[in-house]
Amino acid sequence: MNRLIHLLFPVALGLASGAAADLVASLDAGGNKWGYAAPHAATVQPWDGSPFTLEAELLRSAPGPSGLLPRESWFGLFIEDGSNGSRFSFGPFNPERDANPARVPLAAVCYEKRGHFQVKRSSEQWDTAAERLFLKAEYDGETLRFSASTDGQACREALRIVPAKPFMPNRIGLTLDGFHDRSAIRELRVKEFRVSGSGPARSDRFDGSRQAGWNSTEPKRARFLHPVELELEWRNPPSGNNVFDRGREAAFTLELRTTQCIGETVGLRFRCFDRDGRELWNSSERRTLTAEPLRLSGSVPAERLARNGVYRLRAEAALPGKPAQIREQQFAVIPVIPVTPDRYDRRSPYSGNYFADWNLAARLGIRQIRQTWRQPGEFETRQYAERARANGLLVNGPCLDAAFRPQTPQTLAAKADRIAAAFLKLEKKYPDFIYCQEIYNEPENWPPTAMETDLVPFAALVARVRQNLRAAGSKLRLMSPGTTHVNLSFLKTLALVGGPDVVDIVAVHGYRSPNRPEFGHEEDIAAIRDLFGDKPVYVNEDAYFALTAEKPEGPTSITQPFHTMIELDELTHAIYLQRKYLCQFMAGYALVNQFDSIRNHSLSEHEFHRRPGLVTLAALAATLPHPEFVRRRTASTDHLWILDWTTDGRPVTTLWSLNDFHEVTLTAPEPLRVLDAFGNETANGRKVALTVGGAPLFVLGGPVAVEKRAVTARHPAIVLPEEEPLGEKPFAMEVFGRAESLTKSVISVTLRNNSGAPFAGTATPHFMNDAPASWRFTPASQPIKLAPGETVTLEFTPGSGDPAEPFDPYRPVAGKGYNALWWTEGYRVAIELSTSVGNATLLHSRRPLCLRGIPFDDRISIDGDLADWNDIPEFPQVGGDRKRNTALARFWTGAADYRPTFKFAWNREGLLFAAEVLDDKHDADCKGLDAWRTDSIQLGLNADHERPDFTGYPVLTLADGSPAILQRATKERPAGPLPEVPLKVIRHQGSYDRPGRTVYECLIPWRLLKFDPESGKPFGFCVQFNESDGWWRKGWEGYFLQMGGHIIDPRRFGDLTPLKPDHRPMERHNPCK
């Protein structure tokens, strides 16, 4: 490829000389880049997937301690499609060990479809003696063309790459990075970056005027220093990591940098606020700016930080006559939990997964670390042993070196011998902190053996390792690989292949964000114990997901509001974390492992934004270091949960509410202490009056007696956003939907003005999740006037102006206005509130919308023959492999393997449901309350869709050979058979000319649902199909599913509206206009 290509740059570029007109980039360390998920260092701007041309002029960097360009390091242009998992970095790439080469090839570091690291080298080379390098990338919608030059006039094409489709770049920019930890690149200078195209990114001359908005992807490893008038950055103080023990001052360090205002005086003000926005402390000073960054250190006095919690620290810096620059951080104050070097606690149920800061983990009360490794030597090279001993932390695996192919008895034996030998080596060398080890992680997601074998050889490998360990006389406890959620199919395979004693500890993963923590845990534990007896069961990976301030796609927008909508606000994240631990301990889990690696999973967004979850976890571990569940004081169907525990012989009672606020009076013969969810004392004495909401309270002492309890309108000290549905400031919104016919849907938007000032403007709805441009609302917007505290409800009708892109809730298309992922589904909208002077506020809906109606049909009979359903609209599978969960996602061979469809209708007796499941292997081995473990359907149905009762809605299980089952007790009746629900299940075995299929048909009486079908209101629904191929449930799919495999949170249900009897099915099908 020697074609000459004209550059847009003039030779001299007309830029001012000197460092003030350069972007200066430095890389402190590289990192393993084998997989797409590995973080890559870049400074980026958002893009919209459209064609572009990028150009950059770079100046040769000075050699650093690692040389000019260490082995397998690179720099240049950066292009990424984060949605589809493709990334390309083009520029000089050094494949050799010589870190100061005379020439290096120009290459593209490529990842496609979330695949592995690849380098596509060109024949063009960069002469490292050249002072300048011009790089160019062109994308025409099909092909990427990469070119380079050293003179800025013309360049040679180096590479052409046709990215795997779909490819819609959403980030572009500049990168420097390396594959190895010790890679470092010093002061690479960029003179100019140019972009042409219709997307949002902007060119930048790097002259201090900040023409473009840049975001750094890896600020810990790489710095991209732009020319600036004044820039403020927090730095870690020498005395802490922004998590402080209660009773200590909170130290901070602020760095000020300028390239334009050297010698000028800046005024500084520091202010500290509590979680409710009350100012607790402030300080002011003046400093003179210098050419070198100026670092200022200070501290918030301990007496101003009297309570555990999160605090905001704001720095304001102003140059004379100019607006102040503001930088904020959020730090945490936690209960004091001593770190115990060289002393280990095997009774503690608190473990941490992939914590970067092991000392912080120990200060939170965590007593074990789950850290991946492949070779035992990593315990020294990565300082695992040193860090474990320094902080008194046990290390529980996992070993990732478990893949073997081809699958023969010989390769299995060799791999088992290798793993067992590694475990024995660890046990011998580190007997103090190695007590158990895990083999591999989530085998359903990354199969270590051929998928066609359904992980049976892998189960045999685990059994062989166990055999080897016992033959060697080892006392090491073997943990099963942590499964994605609770994958019963692998666990049953493991128990049948190796026997119930094949492992000493059973491990599963417990994710269920954003759903509530209650319910489902006991069912999982019962199934596991039926396989493995009374062995300890660990949740060895778990987290709730929190909203992040910054997104990989760029700033929050209408089309990318909150990723997949499975994230929670930080306060709810913290409280759900605590309730999840309590529910899991109550169910019988012996240990819970908090995942802390991915930004939205973690207890910190970053080191200068510590989340409240750090505090609630530390408070829980400090209050219940060794929890033992004693009893329930209230039933699971009660809105108020009161649970008794002991910890090291001391009684503790916990209280929280699932619905409503409650006034509770407790008495005891000895004084009680009451702590809130953050570990702060809120009451004490022999008689305490408590206001209980969703945030747990901890009562220390006892035995306690409940003197009285009542529902109250009084608010507790901690109120979750879900407990004040229209309490968000300055404006709050709720969005619900309903169908008025089979061709018309309506969206109802309720707005409240919580700003404290009158509002006059317009409300304009927008579709989220990349809806077609032709979709529209009628009316397009509505004028509103709201006094402070006033509420208004507006209605909009969705439709489309293009027949080729209809708005049709009965045929949704994933990715076109309809979100269809494993754990989230439906339409969502944003409302733009704008004023006449141009101010705008965006509000995003959190509840999913289905917008479907179900027809009336009094001709259907429950007989297993679905011919009388022909006119009823179907619910097709939407989303492909992004809707199938756990092993069903990867271990699926096509529609004949498993494909469910279903329909709803109604008559005056009840709700009609029919489903047809194509399924090559039908397993109906489990019955009654255990039927969910094998092939079955589960329905969640909630009469009050807008304000659900979290213990009052039915979850039904439909299975072959069983009556319809009420899966979980409600306040009205216990779990068990529902004789009033007619159910017919017929299995049709497959043959050469037809696939196997199972037909389900039932009628659910309205009296069971407590719903009036002629009210015109929708009810909430969730449909989950459980799939088993004979080894118990391998996964599930359906509509409005919930993470974790159990129906537990009716707020995540979709809406279904029974249509009036005069709306017959034959009215279909003309999509909404």
Automatic annotation (TrEMBL):
InterPro entries: GH (IPR017853). Residues 1-21 form the signal peptide. The keyword Signal applies. Keywords: Signal. Gene3D superfamilies: 2.60.40.1190, Glycosidases. It comes from Victivallis vadensis. This is Carbohydrate binding protein with CBM9 domain.
